[in-house]
Each structure stands twice: as structure tokens, then as C-alpha cells.
Amino acid sequence: MTLSSQPMPTNLPQLSADCSRCAALCCVAYPFDASEDFAIIKDTEEPCPNLSVTCFGCTIHDNLSKRGFGGCVAYSCAGAGQRVTQDLFDGETWRDDPDLIPHMSHALRVLRPIHEALLILQEAAAMTLPDELGTELAHLSETLSVRGGTSIWDFEEPEVQDALAQVPEFVPRLAPYVVPRD
């Protein structure tokens, strides 16, 4: 059995959030239930009342935890928000056209799990793996990257969704190759 590190595809999407290139989709797409993570109840596809009306910034960002919004502090879109805004909607926003709210929200809910899976696979690529697992890792990464995807339909294609469904089955198979960090 040959062991080697596997390179990730070179054209991975950005996998870290860049809120300056997003339309505050996380503040719109998801519902909040009043809990220890969210101080209010907010419906799906309803802009958070703490969202600035003049820009896409949070009016309480510096005090989120103190104000009961620990869920916002813990959240990361893994770069899906700016990909939806910039690549799928060409920089248009739901403020420019309120009819885009359900479409942009849906797109975020589709892309975020894909980006999270790519983050996991990116970590796995740094591991020394048998060629068989490395090949599978490269295939999953390539499929989930959706090169040139410009429509939500590109991300909902069966091969992409099948690859996404395979990641939770693939990851446990990496356990024998995990090297503890000091």
C-alpha cells in the first residue's frame, strides 16, 4: 500500500467568509428561535432586525455575545455567502430586488454544506493516505468544487449532491491515518 499526501484541486472556491462581498445572507436566510444562542425569534428569509438598513453590517456586531447572539458569533458560511452573492447573483442583492430573498436564501442553504464538506476534505488532503483514499478524496473535492458554477442548478446536480452525501461516509475511513497533533 502506497501512502502519500493528496493535493486539493487548484481551483477551490474561497472557503473562508468574506462578509464584505456578501449581502448578509446569513442574517436573512436562517430562522432564529429564542434560546441561549439567539435572543429573538426570527423567521426564515426575514432580515434580522439588527441588520443595518443602510448597508449589510450588523448594528450590534461588537456586542453580539452580550446581547444574546452567540449563534451569530459561532456561525461561518465557509465562503458560501460571497459565492452566492458574487458568482450566482453577479453582485445583485436582495436589497436591490427583494424578490431575490427566497432564491439567495435557498442558494446559501445549498452551498454552505458543500463548502463545509470542502473544508473537511481540505484538512484531509494534508494527511498521508493510501492512494485509493487519496484518489477518492480528490474526486470528491473536484466534484464538490463545481468549477464554473454560475447557477444554483449546478450545485443541485445529482453528482454534486451524491458527492456531498458521500463525505460523512468517507471521513470515518480516514481515522487510521490521523496523526495526533502536539
Task: Write up what this structure looks like.
This protein has 182 residues and is mainly alpha-helical. The chain has one domain (15-175). 42% of the residues lie in helices and 3% in strands. It has 7 helices and 2 strands. It has a two-stranded antiparallel ribbon with strand order 1-2.
Descriptive key words:
single chain, 182 residues, mainly alpha, two-stranded antiparallel sheet, 7 helices, 42% helix, globular
Radius of gyration, in Å, reads 18 Å
Share of residues in helices? 40-55%
Q: Secondary-structure element order, as H and E? A: EHHHHEHHH
How many separate domains make up the residues? 1
User: What's the N-to-C terminus distance?
Assistant: 27 Å
List the helices and strands and how they pair.
Layout: E1 3-5, H1 26-29, H2 70-74, H3 80-88, H4 101-125, E2 128-130, H5 131-145, H6 152-156, H7 158-170
Antiparallel strand pairs: 1-2
In short:
This protein is mainly alpha-helical.
